[in-house]
Amino acid sequence: MTIRNPRSIIIISLYSVLNLFVILTALRQKTDADPALKKAGTMAPEFTEIEHLNYFHLIGGIPQMSLAAIKMQSIGEELAEFTEPKGVYNYQQKNQTMRYEAQEGIYKKAKDLLVLKGDVKVVSDEAEYEAARVKYYFKKDLILGYGGVTFKGFDLKTKDQIEIHSETMRANPHNHFSLFKGQVHGSMERKKKYEGKMVFSSQQLQLEGLKSLAHLEGDVSLKRQSYLITAGNGDIYLENYNKSLKYFVFNDDVKMTETMETPEGTTYRKAFAEKLEGFGVDQKMILSGAPKVEHGADVVKGYRITIREKMDLIEVDDAITDFQMKRKDDEKKNKLKE
Q1: Can you tell me the distance from the alpha carbon of 212 to that of 177, in angstroms, rounded to the nearest whole number?
Q2: Contact (CB, 8 A) for 279 and 293
Q3: What CA–CA distances, in Å, run from 194 to 134, 189, 190, 191, 225?
Q4: 164 vs 170: CA distance, rounded Å
Q5: Global pTM?
Q6: Which of 17, 141, 251, 328 has its CA 20 to 30 A from that of 31?
Q7: What stretches of the chain show up as alpha helix (H) in DSSP?
Q8: 33 three-state secondary structure
Q9: Which residues, other chains included, contact 97 with Cβ-Cβ below 8 Å and sequence gap of 6+?
């Protein structure tokens, strides 16, 4: 019989106990982890797909948002994606609705946000918005439009028809406020067609429906009847057309070109100033800030100049500066004498 060294037996025993401790610890950690795995599995959002559906979001048992789509994919209750959505949002406090449609849509319930993409159209009682992509925050009454933006509506007071195109847009429909930026252009047409139409362009346009005011900024251009006006910025007061008040005001390097038909043919009257004020009912424009008018060979300067539309007549206020009317032939003769 072989008797082992007592010291070896002690070492082997300690090693066995250590291994047993490691095994039991590992088993305990695995057992503790299993409930966590089960819990994580139950918390994972559920994926749902439905075809040809009608979706409703209720508040107090009343549908605040209704939507129809060819297909819906949702993850839990917080996010839903729609194909070809068409729907209505109800502003219950204001008793108004907003209709919308697009090629794709994503509704984020937590933010009360609807993102629409592809041939987007949003329509209220007073206006219609179109764009390649739109973010619509329902509770904030905020619409953000991107790419090929088009606005069509009418002024609340005058019923003038307004159409605006731009690269981006920020609108609060129920406050009747819109801001358009990037290659802005469009038109404003009077309710009575014979009263004329204005075609405009700028880098930015702010439309305030409650004030019947359009403010244009940057490379402003306005075409009205036989007049073309360019300036740095301008305001159009739509409500003042038939009043003895300012209908439009332009500032900063103003230039006006009027096309006039005469028995001798087409002529052009040009005016330059720092400020131009137009009065619709009186059919006149007042230039101030070093104004100058050129018509053919005639040049007129003064402190303030008033131009009557469709009339070969101007009024000059010469309280400060000297009045000048020169013909180009006279200027050449004076230079030869010198």
Answers
A1: 10
A2: no
A3: 36, 10, 8, 9, 11
A4: 13
A5: 0.77
A6: 17
A7: 6-43, 328-337
A8: helix
A9: 88, 89, 90, 91, 124, 125
- Sign of the alpha-carbon torsion through 129, 135, 138, 139: negative
Read off the tokens for 4. Answer: 């082992």
Q: Which residues pair with 151 in a beta bridge?
A: 129, 164
Determine the distance from the C-alpha atom of residue 273 to the mean position of all C-alpha atoms in its chain, rounded to a whole number.
31
Domain locations along the chain:
141-337
Q: What are the helix (H) ranges across 71-206?
A: none
Reduced 3-state DSSP string for 305-326: EEEECCCCCEEEECCCCCCEEE
Q: How many other CB atoms sit within 10 Å of the CB of residue 92?
A: 12
**Residue written as tokens 């004076």?**
334
Q: CA 182, CA 219: separation in Å to the nearest integer?
A: 11
Cβ pair 260, 236 in contact under 8 A: no
Domain 141-337 has CATH 3.40.1110.10: no
C-alpha distances in Å from residue 300, one per residue of 52, 269, 307, 311, 331: 72, 11, 12, 16, 14
Show pLDDT as tens, one digit a residue, over the chain (338 residues): 444 555 555 555 555 555 555 555 555 655 454 554 444 444 555 667 778 777 766 666 666 677 788 888 877 667 888 899 998 887 766 567 889 999 999 988 888 889 999 999 999 888 999 999 999 998 888 999 999 999 999 998 999 999 999 999 999 988 899 999 999 999 999 888 777 889 999 999 999 999 999 999 999 999 988 899 999 999 999 999 888 889 999 999 999 999 887 777 888 889 999 999 999 888 889 999 999 998 878 888 888 999 887 777 788 887 444 444 444 444 444 444 44
Smallest CA-to-CA distance from 104 within 89, 122, 90, 119 is with 119
| Distances, alpha carbon 63 to alpha carbons 82, 125, 218, 230, in Å | 18, 19, 44, 50
CA distance 126 to 106: 25
